[in-house]
Amino acid sequence: MRSSPLPRMSRRGRVTIGVLVGVFVLFTLLGWGVNAWTDWLWFDEVRYTQVFTGVLATRVLLFLIVGFGMAVVIGGNLWLAHRLRPRMRPHSLEQATLERYRMLLSPRLGSWIATVAAVIGLFAGLSAQTRWSQWLLFRNGGSFGVKDPEFGVDVGFYVFELPFWRYLLGVGFTAVVLSLLGALAVHYLFGGVRLQGVGDRMTNGARAHLSTLVAVFVLLKAVAYVLDRRAMLLEYNEGTKLYGAGYADINALLPAKEILAYISVVVAIAIIVFSNAVMRNLVWPGISLALLGVSAVAIGGIYPWAVQTFEVKPSARDKEAPYIQRSIEATRAAYGLSATKTSGYAANNLVPPASLATDTSVVPNVRLLDPQLVSETYTQLQQVRGFYDFGPKLDIDRYAVSGKTSDYVVGVREINYGELPQNNWINRHTVYTHGYGLVAAPANQICDNGTPYFVSGFLGDSAKEVQGCASQSEQIPAQQPRIYYGERMEADDYAIVGQAGERNVEFDRPTSTGGEQYYTYTGEGGIKIGSFSRRLLFAIKEQESNFLLSESVNDNSKLLYVRNPRDRVEKVAPFLTLDGDPYPAVVNGRVQWIVDGYTTAATYPYAERVNLQAETTDELTGRGTFQLARENVNYIRNSVKATVDAYDGTVRLYQFDDTDPVLKAWNKAFGGDLVLPKSAIPPELAEHFRYPADLFKVQRNLLTKFHVTDPGDFYSGQDFWQVPNVPDAPDSGQKQPPYYLFTQFPGQEEGPRFQLTAAVTPNGRQNLAALISGSYVDGQPRLEVLELPDQTRTAGPVQVHQQMTNNGDIRQQLNLLSSNQAQVQYGNLLSLPFANGMLYVEPVYVKSNQQDAFPSLQRVLLSYGDGGSYVALAPTLADGIKQLVEQGKRAPQGTPPPGGGTTPGTGTNSPPPLTGELAEAAGKVQSAIAEVKAAQTSGDFERYGRALKTLDEAMTAFQQAQSATTPSSAPAPSGSAPASPPVSPSPNG
Fold it and tell me: Which tens digits make up the pLDDT trace of 190-242?
């Protein structure tokens, strides 16, 4: 009896391994089962079980079909290779060496083949189940009603079908390659393929089997070439620096792909015929494969390169023009830029008009509260208890109070679990379960001490208990002010509510007498955990024994978890990309979180592809706003407005873009009623919709290039814009965030409008190029661009901030505000078009260095015109406007503001030379300017400050002398500037 080539494992060893494997499988299945069960309970609570079952069923289906299919293909080819083994093998040293392996495998060959096939099928199935979203879109996708410019194929094919076809092609390649390698190994092991010995090195059966697999691989390559022809419209074009096929791609690579597809079919046929029917050897099949490789290099590589190098590059502007036009049109369509309204704005008025003091549409609505800075103020003045918190950034919304609509800075008073007096399990999860109140203050109204004027969210029975100034009653009343779901709640901040008996144990709010009021949750939200099985279930899930042991968990208990509104919507609608800045609003007496949801795609032909994380990151990212994932997209729509009730956690998805094919596909995939129709949006809720910030950032960044619609101008890039850096910290490299305003821009005839606004500057320069705004008009999104002339003198945000803060008098006042005990903080720099000029407003906050200090608004910086000609620093906005108007009145009619004149004695129509006191004053201005430049170059801060002061005095003297003369005889001194010349704040330039 021949002994086994490998020693057998003892019975005890086999039992031990079996037990370990069983325990591992048990705990794996237990963990999966607990998560699945608790997820089902959660989805049942929010009434979106169709999402849970739909995604789960799709994943299981893909796992089984792809996994089983892969296992059958691999296993079938391994079995066939064994079946085709030769019955008689020639004796050789090679075969003798392989005999021991054949003896090991042959008795249980079926088991070995099944094991290998099952393992490969398992990994293939696990990979396939992650493609559930592609399959659902493939199955439910429809038409876009837009055809691509090259093949005339509906865009829906690229968005819904192409990604899944390419995945299936990849699965086919993987199956064929693994089958080929496995079959080759089996043929070699059982003698079908030999490396030694006389006669043929490959049996007829092995040759037919392996050549067929190679032929199938080549046929799949032909299919790949066909799909590549479509996918070319998605690739990056180095020649144009845009996405989409260019001249060389269309005229050289595209026909090359078609030729290579035909060659692949011919090669596949040649491999089968020559290997099995004609010559019965591998010489001609090898030649055919070599021909395919050479063709791929020559036709698919060298020829397109030659066309690009010798035909396109010498005249790229003309050759690529039609394809640049395609990219411009596709990008504007894919990102919702096609309907952008662009209008010119001369901004040639550099003198503050008297109408500033009487305006009723722009000036009264100027926002002075900065949501980022006053968060600390809200926390200190509205906190009452140390564990209350408003987060690092507040939100902007608008409300109609007493018949007048204004924008308000709003924040929700939430629990900061890290600041609880005793952070134990009982307190964290059963006592401190919720926050209280939506606190709001008008964005354009400040108390005498520089603090906000609070109008809602009071903890006590009256506003008299509020620290600081406030209205006498709730102006934005909430019938249910308790916050059980909020932004400050992490994944492990679950709450157990619903206590037995008459005693309330949930801390509700402090009372006016210094005591504390308690409460018991009565909402519909939450999962009942009164039964032992439910308590055991969540004890396992949370790995917390208190679910079973604590008396705080009883028959009436409910569990609230996934309490962050953004996480809640993301779980209900996993196909949406969510905006990073949810915001609260009081709607019909209840606090609702509003979350903007985007549908996206990455396969819109010819559209520019962007990374959402990179495009939406700015100064505020991570400071009250969530950072988006690194998702590459080339199509986006704000298709869904989602709401989360802050009290009971109810989630509702409302269709906002009723024309979006992607949302229609997702809604169909989950039964057709997952998303409520647009007509179901309550009017009271629609009043609080705002243009979403992340979408606006993407559109703003794209408009810096794609506002240019002429292909030739686009290719030259001379008219491109850029987003400026943060005005008060330009060296940080962080982009200036857009800001919400309730205002009226030129051309907006509907009156003041709540809109998201951003300034852009020419590429490589800092003067103002345009203002971009996004708003809703009659429930529809509208993008508008106010474009300034190319050679405008109007300064951009960075220049304006530097010029205002470099002004001699203003610099002195700012220095007085800041000291070793305090620091100056700058709010949003607002760029407001007004009276054919530009009004700039920048709040100035002062924060003491003492503990628990908060910023308070102490001054308002204002400027009109080119950013530095007319500047004011005043305690209030009204005082600043008055100063600007007075400065404008002192400017002689028809005379450019200081710094805008021409050099005397130059030009054909130069004015007569200055005489008398005016000439002397002009000379002092020229000397002062020269000293400023010299001090700036020297790097001497003290000298630089003295020079600025001297220049300010010289300019004042010149203006006084100028006012004593007629306008025609008072030209400005050469190179003169306003009281603060446009120089860098750094002496080092």
Answer: 777 776 665 566 788 888 899 899 999 999 999 999 999 999 999 999 888 99
Tell me how far apart the alpha carbons of residues 604 and 622 are, in angstroms, rounded to a whole number. Answer: 30
| pTM attached to this predicted model | 0.85
At position 709, the amino acid (one-letter code) is T
Does the pLDDT of residue 52 top 80, yes or no? yes
Burial class (CB in 10 A: 0-12, 13-18, 19+), 790: exposed
Q: Does position 901 have pLDDT exceeding 50, yes or no?
A: no
- What does the pLDDT read at residue 893? 53
Distance of CA 522 to CAs 478, 555, 644, 686, Å?
16, 15, 17, 27
| CA-to-CA separations, 843 to 294, 370, 442, 875, in angstroms, rounded | 68, 8, 15, 10
Question: Over 70: is that where the pLDDT of 989 sits?
Answer: no
Q: Residue 249 and residue 776: Cα distance in Å, rounded? A: 41
* 421 bridge partner residues: none
Res. 14: pLDDT tops 70: no
Using DSSP bridges, classify how beta strands 856-864 and 753-762 pair: parallel, antiparallel or unpaired.
unpaired
C-alpha 480 chain-centroid distance: 32
Contact indicator for 117, 194 with CB cutoff of 8 Å: no
Q: Which residues pair with 193 in a beta bridge?
A: 202
Positive or negative, the Cα torsion across 44, 50, 51, 53? Answer: positive
Residues 421-468 have pLDDT tens digits of: 888 999 999 999 999 999 999 999 998 888 999 999 988 754 445 555
Rounded Cα–Cα distance for residues 475 and 454 (Å) = 9
| Contact status, residue 624 vs residue 581, Cβ threshold 8 Å | yes
pLDDT (0 to 100) of residue 906: 33
Number of CB atoms found within 10 A of residue 445's CB: 14
Centre a 10 Å sphere on the Cβ of residue 494 and count the other Cβ atoms it contains.
21
Residue 892 pLDDT class (50, 70, 90 cuts): low
For residue 278, pLDDT over 60 is answered with: no
Give 260-270 pLDDT, tens digit per residue.
Answer: 999 999 888 88
Q: Residue 692: how many CA atoms within 13 Å on its side-chain side?
A: 26
Tokens of 235: 């690739």
Angle at CA 424, nearest 5°, toward 421 and 426? Answer: 105
d(CA 884, CA 897): 13
C-alpha span between 875 and 872 (Å, rounded): 10
pLDDT digits 0-9 by tens, 840-856: 999 999 988 888 788 99
Which of 924, 974, 987 is closest to 951 using CA atoms?
Answer: 924
Give the chain's mean pLDDT: 85
Contacts of 22 (CB under 8 A, 6+ apart): none
DSSP per position, 211-247: HHHHHHHHHHHHHHHHHHHHHGGGSEETTTTEES--H
The single-letter code of the amino acid at 305 is: W
Contact 811, 798 (CB under 8 A): no
Q: Cα-flanking dihedrals φ and ψ of residue 883, to 5°?
A: -65, -45
Which DSSP symbol is given to 725? B
Q: Which residues of 892-931 are buried (b: 16+ CB within 10 A; e: fewer)?
A: beebbbbbbbeebeeeeeebeebeeebeebbebbeebbeb
Alpha-carbon Rg for the chain, nearest whole angstrom, is: 36
The values of phi and psi at residue 159, to 5°, are -80, -45
- Distance, in Å, from the CA atom of 621 to the CA atom of 637, rounded to the nearest integer, reads 21
Give CA–CA dist 550/160, Å, rounded.
Answer: 51
**743, β-bridge pairs:** 753
In whole angstroms, what is the distance from residue 339 CA to residue 332 CA?
9
**Helix 11-46 × helix 565-572 angle, to 10°:** 110
Query: Looking at 284-298, 375-389, 746-760, which range is the least confident one?
Result: 284-298
3 state DSSP class of 500: coil
Q: Give me the sheet containing 395-401, strands edge to edge.
A: 395-401, 404-412, 438-442
φ, ψ (nearest 5 deg) of residue 510: -75, 150
